[in-house]
Structure formats: C-alpha cells, structure tokens
Amino acid sequence: MDGQNQDYRPRTAGERRNASGPDGGVRDWQRNTWFGPAPLNNNPFEEPEDAPELKEIRSANVTEHAGDFWNTPEKSNTGPVPSGRTAVNESRSRDRRIKARPRTFRLIAGGFVFIAALVLILRFAVFSVKEIYVNGNSTVSAEEVIRASGIRRGDYILSLNEKTVEERITSDYRLQFRYMATQLPSTVVISVREREPCCWLTYCGIMYVMDKNRMVLYESENPSEQPQNLVEIKGLEVRSNTLVGQYINLGSETQQSIFTELFLEMKVLGCTDQIKEADISNTSSILLFTRDGYIAALGDRNNLHAKLRSLLLVQEELKQQNYSGGTISVTNPEAPIYTP
C-alpha cells in the first residue's frame, strides 16, 4: 500500500505469539492487533483482514442494498408500516394504544357506575311514593282504602298500574273505584266511592241491607236495627247470594230490571229519602209509599223517570194545599190523578 509503513505486517486471525513476549501469548482477537497506523482503505467493507471468514459470507451487493433481502417489506406484529412512518413511530403508537386501553375501560366502567347510581337515586329517592291521599270516603277510613289499593310508601311511582289498583279496591265490597292520579315525583291520589245503602228487605227472618245494585252490605237478625231512613223493598223473589259482599240474585229478570232502574231514577231525582216502601211484587202495578203518607201507583216499568217526577210535583202541591194522605196515580205522568 502506498504511503504506509513498509514494516507493517497484519497478523492473521488465531495467530499465537510467544508467551514470553510482550503480549504474553494473548490471541489477536483478545486485544488490539494493530501495530501500526490504521490502513487507509476507502471501502470499510474490505476490512477486517483479521476475520476473512466474514468477508467470505458477506453479500456481494451489501453496499448497493440490492437483492431479495433488501426488497422484502418490513413485517411486524401489527402489519406493514405505512408510508412515511418508521418502525420506531409504529412501536410508540402501539405502546400508546396499549396504555390507552385500561383508561378506556376505566371510563366505560365509570360510566356504567354513574348510570346505575343515577337510576337508584331516581328510583328510591326521587320517584318513590311518599304521600298517598284518599277522597270520596266517609265511613271507610283512608288507611283502609290505602291498604285495599295495595300501594305502599316507597313503591316506584312510575310502575303503578291503575287497572291493578282498581281491581284491588273493588275487591272490598264496600268500595267502588273512581280514579287514581299520580303527581310526580312522589304523590298518589286515590278517589273512591263508598257503596251507599239504599234499601233493605227481610228474607227468612234476616234483614239484608243493600245498595242500588243489590249488593248486600250487612245483615242483622235484630228487628230493632231496621234502618229508618232507607226504603224497605217488598215482593222480591230472592233466589240466591244473600251473603255480605254478594249481589242478591232474583228469580225474575223483570223484577231485577225494575229494581235497578227504579233506585237509579230515585237517586238521580234525589228522592230516595222521601220513599218509605216500594212494592214490586206485581211488575205491572208498582206501588210506592211516601213518608208523607201518600201511596203512588206507577203502573208498569215504562217511563219511570217521568212518573217519579210527576209524583214529586203533585205531592208538593198537595202539601201546600194542606192535603195529607191519599193515592196519587201517575200511570199517565202528564195527567196524574189524586184520590184522598
């Protein structure tokens, strides 16, 4: 080589030196083997001469980056690296995604916990029944109505079903359901009607008090307990169901229809308290006995509303003229006949 020390002699790999020499017999690869200035070689891939076996297996195209090795796309566990991105950037991105996963899971879990807590607060703290009001009752206490409805304080107000509440309340024979109203967030209003006794009859020595629908409200074997302000009904053909809380069945459908219509019209006109006795044993000749001592002949069941109205007007006129007692025929309501 031009310009190099002529005394320079490179040692070959694996060459031993004398142990007594200055190097102590150390192999060349165990220490610096150069004894002179570094060779001036323009191509570093021509070196080192101490390891010629490396040169033998080196690719001839190593400096040109040519061949199958250099043309093979880089592969990784996450797929090919997109253009413009290095393997280091891809690795950093993957690390960031891995670190972000626990944070995402924590956010999702926190969201579920928040929603569950909100639902529980709304259910048990906001939309739970705290106040229950009852109207329309008189003899039945509000506590009994609430107990019959099945509604309890603390119930979820949005889950209350009016149909279910109606069925529960009407199972108490004393009550009739009107409506249920909810006033959010926590108030319930229950409106009921109590079954009103309007008449009574004696059957097999027992007194039965009924409402206008023939529901037995109570019974008694004591004659002194006969209600003085109710209508005594006579002539009914009782067939069955004379227990408290049941509708009395009549043997005659005509009687059954007359009973219902008669007491309905008396309630509409507000004259039930003026009638002492009603006899419907003869369905073609209905008789009423007033508390003022008059007997009213209504005839058959036709046009009962007009007949009752005519009876009330005539009775009031007779009282003003100081007439007492007698018979008032209103079979023709437009031409009533009074007989002292």
Structure description:
With 340 residues, the protein is of the alpha/beta class. The protein folds into 3 domains: 1-72, no CATH class; 131-194, membrane protein fhac (Ubiquitin-like (UB roll), Roll); 199-339, Rossmann fold (3-Layer(aba) Sandwich), CATH 3.40.50. It has 7 helices and 14 strands. The protein has a 9-stranded mixed beta sheet with strand order 6-5-4-7-10-11-12-13-14, with helices on one face. Strands 1-3-2 form a 3-stranded mixed beta sheet, covered by helices on one side. A hairpin with a 5-residue loop joins strand 5 (206-210) and strand 6 (216-220). Helix 6 (253-269) crosses helix 7. The longest helix has 40 residues, at 87-126. The chain is rod-shaped, with a radius of gyration of 56 Å. It starts with 51 loop residues before the first helix and ends with a strand. The relative contact order is 0.05.
